[in-house]
């Protein structure tokens, strides 16, 4: 199975197993759900969502200001 990852300057295809989640991906990249939002196929999603073959995952860093 493969999916497409978009994050900052990353735009690549990745191989995965059947039970690979958004949370697993973010852990590999050293990202936190407190500072990053995930979109799966253009829709906001939770980090427990399983990534399926052909999905497009877009990770967006949240910027805080004051």
Which keywords apply here?
ThiS/MoaD-like, Beta-grasp_dom_sf, MoaD/ThiS family protein, Mopterin_synth/thiamin_S_b, mainly beta, 66 residues
Layout: helices, strands, pairs:
Blueprint: E1 2-7, E2 10-15, H1 22-29, E3 36-40, E4 43-45, E5 56-61
Parallel strand pairs: 1-5
Antiparallel strand pairs: 1-2, 3-4, 3-5
Protein name: MoaD/ThiS family protein
InterPro entries: Beta-grasp_dom_sf, Mopterin_synth/thiamin_S_b, ThiS/MoaD-like
What does this entry look like structurally?
- It is a single chain.
- With 66 residues, this protein is mainly β.
- 12% of the residues lie in helices and 39% in strands.
- The chain is built from 1 helix and 5 strands; from the N terminus they run ββαβββ.
- It has one helix spanning 22-29; strands at 2-7, 10-15, 36-40, 43-45, 56-61.
- Strands 2-1-5-3-4 form a 5-stranded mixed beta sheet, with no helix packed on it.
- The protein is globular, with a radius of gyration of 11 Å.
- The N and C termini lie far apart (42 Å).
- This is MoaD/ThiS family protein.
**Level of helix content?**
10-25%
Counting helices, strands and paired strands, the structural category is: mainly beta
List low-pLDDT spans.
none
Q: Outline the biggest β-sheet.
A: 5 strands, mixed
Distinct helical segment count = 1
N-to-C terminal Cα separation, in Å? 42 Å
pLDDT averaged over residues: 94
- Binned strand content: 35-45%
The count of β-strands is 5
């Amino acid at each position: 199975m493969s999916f497409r990852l978009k994050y900052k300057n990353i735009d690549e295809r990745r191989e995965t197993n059947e039970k690979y989640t958004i949370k697993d991906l973010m852990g590999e990249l050293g990202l936190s759900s407190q500072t990053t939002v995930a979109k799966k196929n253009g829709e906001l999603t939770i980090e427990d969502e399983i990534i399926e073959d052909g999905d497009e995952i877009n990770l967006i860093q949240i910027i805080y200001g004051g």
